[in-house]
Design goal:
Rossmann fold; 44% helix; 4-stranded parallel sheet; alpha/beta; 4 strands
Length: 225
C-alpha cells in the first residue's frame, strides 16, 4: 500500500485509492447486494458472512441488507491474531482518510486478502453505522483447513480467505437451528496461492494412483508429462 502511494506521488500516476474511495462500497451496493437480493427473493436468508480487505463488500452490501432485508444477520470476520476491529482501538488517519500508520493490533497473518495493517476508511462506515451484527475472529490455520476440505469434499478450490469465511459459516451452522440459511462469500480461487501454506502439505510428485489416472486418458497423460 505504502509503495503504491510512493510510486504514484513520485511519477504522477493515478492511484485508485481503493481503501478510501466511496466508489468501492457503491459498486458492491449496486451489484453484489442486488445479486444477493435477486437470488434470495422470496426466500429465507438468516445470515450473511464475510471478511474484509478494503471494506467495500461489507459496507456496500450492508447498506442494502439493512434497508431491504433487516432480518438478515451480518457476520463480519477478521484474523484471530490481528483483531483490528475487535481491539476497540481507533485508526489514526491523515486528512485524506488514508491511514496515518499501522494499527497497534495488527500482526502478520496467513489470510491473504483480509485485514491490512490498518482499518480502511471504506470499512469505517460499517463500523460507525452498525452495518454488521457480530464480529467473529478466525484463526488462519482454520481457514487453511477449511479451504482444503472444500477442495477435497466439494471440488471448490478457494483461497485462504474463502476457507476462513467458510470456517466462520460452519461455526454459525453449529449453533443455528434446523433450516437456517447461511450465505458466505468465497471471493477468489486457490491457484494463486501455490507458494503459500495452503499447499504446503501437497506433495510435489504424484502418487502411484495419480500417475495411473493421468495415464488412463491421453489428455491427462500429456498434461502430466
Amino acid at each position: 500500500y505504502r509503495k503504491a502511494v510512493e510510486l504514484a506521488e513520485a511519477n504522477g500516476w493515478f492511484l485508485a485509492r481503493q481503501f478510501e474511495t466511496e466508489a468501492n462500497a457503491r459498486i458492491h451496493e449496486n451489484t453484489t447486494a442486488r445479486e444477493i437480493l435477486a437470488d434470495f427473493a422470496g426466500e429465507r436468508l438468516d445470515y450473511w458472512v464475510t471478511g474484509y480487505g478494503t471494506g467495500g463488500t461489507v459496507t456496500g452490501v450492508g447498506r442494502v441488507l439493512r434497508r431491504e432485508r433487516p432480518e438478515t444477520k451480518i457476520v463480519l470476520s477478521e484474523p484471530a491474531n490481528a483483531q483490528l476491529l475487535g481491539s476497540g482501538h481507533a485508526q489514526a488517519r491523515n486528512s485524506d482518510h488514508s491511514p496515518a500508520g499501522s494499527h497497534p493490533a495488527f500482526e502478520p497473518h496467513p489470510i491473504q486478502g483480509w485485514t491490512p495493517d490498518f482499518i480502511p476508511h471504506v470499512l469505517q462506515e460499517a463500523v460507525d453505522d452498525g452495518l454488521y451484527d457480530e464480529l467473529m475472529p478466525i484463526a488462519g490455520a482454520d481457514g487453511i483447513a477449511w479451504a482444503q476440505k472444500l477442495a477435497r469434499r466439494e471440488g471448490i478450490l478457494t483461497g485462504v480467505s474463502g476457507g476462513s469465511t467458510f470456517a466462520v459459516a460452519m461455526k454459525i451452522a453449529e449453533r443455528a437451528g434446523p433450516g437456517t440459511v447461511i450465505l458466505c462469500m468465497l471471493p477468489d480461487t486457490g491457484e494463486r496461492y501455490m507458494s503459500t501454506p495452503l499447499f504446503e502439505t501437497i506433495p510435489e510428485d504424484m502418487t502411484e494412483e495419480e500417475t495411473a489416472l493421468s495415464r488412463s486418458t491421453p489428455g491427462f497423460q500429456m498434461a502430466a508429462e
